[in-house]
Prior knowledge:
- Strand 7, helix 8 (200-213) and strand 8 (217-219) form a beta-alpha-beta unit.
- This protein has helices at residues 14-19, 21-30, 43-46, 72-85, 101-109, 143-153, 176-179, 200-213, 226-233, 246-254, 265-272, 287-290, 321-324, 328-343, and strands at 5-10, 33-38, 54-57, 89-92, 115-118, 129-131, 185-188, 217-219, 238-239, 258-262, 277-280, 297-300.
- The chain is 34% helix and 14% strand.
- The chain contains 14 helices and twelve strands.
- The longest helix has 16 residues, at 328-343.
Amino acid sequence: MSRPRVLVARLDSFGDVLVAGPAVRAVAAGASHVTMLCGPQGAPAAELLPGVDRVRVWAAPWVTETARPIDDAVLAEFRALVAEERPDEAVVLTSFHQSPLPLALLLRLTGVPRVSGASVDHPGSLLDVRLRPGEDLPEDVPEPERALRIADAAGFRLPPEEDGRLVVRHDAVAPRSVAGLGRYVVVHPGASVPARSWPASHHRELVAAYAERGVPVVVTGSSGERDLTAAVAGATGIDLGGRTTPAELAAVLAGAEVVVVGNTGPAHLAAAVGAPIVSLFSPVVSAVRWAPYAPLVELLGDQAAPCRLSRARECPVSGHPCLSTVRIEDVLAAHDRLLDRASRMEPRSLRSAPEGAA
């Protein structure tokens, strides 16, 4: 029996696509061709994933970051895309708060014969393979494992030699300002929403504290975060804000002794390159699901704070206590614990599936 052409969809952000990586590799192991369908924010991450033959970008009207009117032009655009890719089936990957049904409807209208996904709502004829979140799909599992379970239900499994960790391609080098450093720490001060941000003043103090230790600091961020990265880097840090492609950022993170980062896409990129991570994690979303999926993680932040699981974009609690109470010395102590743990681990275990955040 010939192997199918499969469209794997993950329509939201950069980090969301990265954590779908193990599921994509599982599909690739049983498919003749894998098309990754992503929104504009997630497509750069898909370009880094092993197992993807082609990345297609489509801005879904129901995704917050790409919301636009749904009309005949949008439907025609989607039909043309699917006609070009000719998938035999589709695997729709979503998080617990998302539904695969809008995309499944469009896939049905374009004639895709088999569609798999996880849906709380009854899908009628929209899904051929349906997992029921909270029933046959546990929800308190890391997001990469959730995606793998959806792929498995569709009939796609990782090869026995695969460990299921996050992985990206390594086909870029770090900028010259970093390549010759030897030892360095990466501090990534930005976050996808304000409620997940450690205060900028804390980041700047951390960079200064590392300078006192004699440890070079590379400050990373997107082109829209240049003012932030410049302020955090100050006179001692190396400011790479807006100066790296995703592949170059992966190279920078891969060379870091430790990466200090909030709950944002580069945290998952750091996990995918095997970097030790100090995770400044706001509990507005579940750490079980969204903490970096890596063997060397130190999780900081009050996970029992009043904002817990609120999914707030702006902090609902005065003073942002879940993260603002994390001290510079807490981060430095977490850094030292990571180095101690790394020194006691076998090299193979650094590349294995995680045992959970510390």
